[in-house]
Amino acid sequence: MEVSPVDVMAAAEALRIPAAVDLAAIVVGALTGGLLAAREGFAVSGVLLLAVSGGLGGGLIRDVLLGDLPPVALTNRAYLPTVAITAAVTFFFSGWLSRLTGLLVVLDAITLGFFTVIGAQKAQILGMSTPAVVFIGTLTAVGGAVIRDVLLAQRADIIQPGPYNAVAALIGATVLAVLAGPVGLDPLPVAAAVIVLVAALRVLSVWRGWEAPVAVDL
Amino acid sequence: MEVSPVDVMAAAEALRIPAAVDLAAIVVGALTGGLLAAREGFAVSGVLLLAVSGGLGGGLIRDVLLGDLPPVALTNRAYLPTVAITAAVTFFFSGWLSRLTGLLVVLDAITLGFFTVIGAQKAQILGMSTPAVVFIGTLTAVGGAVIRDVLLAQRADIIQPGPYNAVAALIGATVLAVLAGPVGLDPLPVAAAVIVLVAALRVLSVWRGWEAPVAVDL
Amino acid sequence: MEVSPVDVMAAAEALRIPAAVDLAAIVVGALTGGLLAAREGFAVSGVLLLAVSGGLGGGLIRDVLLGDLPPVALTNRAYLPTVAITAAVTFFFSGWLSRLTGLLVVLDAITLGFFTVIGAQKAQILGMSTPAVVFIGTLTAVGGAVIRDVLLAQRADIIQPGPYNAVAALIGATVLAVLAGPVGLDPLPVAAAVIVLVAALRVLSVWRGWEAPVAVDL
Lengths: 218, 218, 218
Hints:
The structure is a homotrimer.
Chain A: H1 5-15, H2 19-39, H3 44-66, H4 72-75, H5 79-98, H6 101-125, H7 130-151, H8 166-179, H9 187-208
């Protein structure tokens, strides 16, 4: 499969995601990453690095795997400055921001859904198979968290039992891949529904203490 | 060097590895990864992620470095479903599969040899230099294990003393790079011999307790 | 943005960095990585892997993100053999080399500056925006250390308080991106000045105990 820059630009066009929504998701991702680093007493470079991972990490992995290089994270002129400003905010106001934990859980869940949709749609427009669309969608959603855990030398959060995270993204990406793929529904309402679905699964699993299932031994 | 999709397809053609052998190696890699995750009590997302790493991780790293993007792991329509089914099997039958440890050591060793050959041959067909062929061959063989260790926040197995793993792949890749490269022997018998060599080195080092040499101080 | 192999070759041409300087930086990076592995009693594969990470890791990340694949680390025929020879030296003479710690701090600091410049210049020549030039320059400089920490399952050095490392690279990359970018100064003297600046910041922070600032709570 040949992925030309023109195809990718056409794909971005076809997504027609309002730029403000896109940037909002990156801000929330960078906020979560930077806040964690600031609260743990990391250096300024650590706050920046975790903000970049949280805001742009999933998209970086997605674009490397899809061969859309340099990645959108570097070619879109608004992204890196937005992440840098967000990192600076967390650097100076971590105490104040920490009081917003409840709000951040919700914003984070919506971002998880948004990144799932962005990743899956881009893979779909580039003509990937349904399983590849699911894979790329899920990886875009959780990639930032995986990079963060790796840099912190923590066992990746998504492989452990706990509230739905990768599982919510996986379900959402599968729904999108099937409904907007073989079933052929209009991509826009499907995308909106999947964002709501992923965010709801994530928030409910945190609030109700749902845990991703672990292996059984039949 | 320009790597066009056509070159890569011609390369895959030239390898002429039976699809069944290829899939078998991916199943064994995914089985080892998924089984480890299932036995450690990881969530379903962890079992999937470690199965993907074990079965497709080495090939993902190889294709990113060779610029063959999107990687074969995503464009071959059989790979991701095969890994997902294998992950499901380890998810439900980890206890039963664990009894096969002896068999898995042998299958794993053969897979190490197979991934070494696949990686080295692809680099060779794309016209890489002999050292680059050795590097790519070794990395394809151990890449899945490295990704697994990184996700588990364990010191990478291959940098520590212990049974031959990277060392077996390194020896095999060097033999292939030289014999099928400058020496100019027929690639097919060389590939077969290297698979046997790598698998034998790995199995013997496990059985006889051979350890990779550590630094000396002359 | 389309990055053709021809552009990249023209870029390498335009840099006109003497090949000896280039190789010297890779030797120092590989020496630092290999020496660490040898002193910690790692296997031969670990010494090789950390030497490759230290000498070529930053450049590998840079080229993957810029889409210049296969990366220069693999296409330049001198790099991998140079790293392998350096790894062999650390494997056999780690005790003797360890006495050079003072010298290594200085060489390492110069290498940090050099990798910053190489990364930032390459991004600049490929037409990236100023923030992207800063990002790539910094990542090229610290990428090898990040890969090393990840393989050792250590919390990445650059996110923790301590002597300037990523911070020195970040300052240097910003100076280069602005002076050789929008300001339009001659790239060569700017490059030389930035190498001195980064190396000085790094060495002084080690000697004087300067630490990268941590988050405050306004």
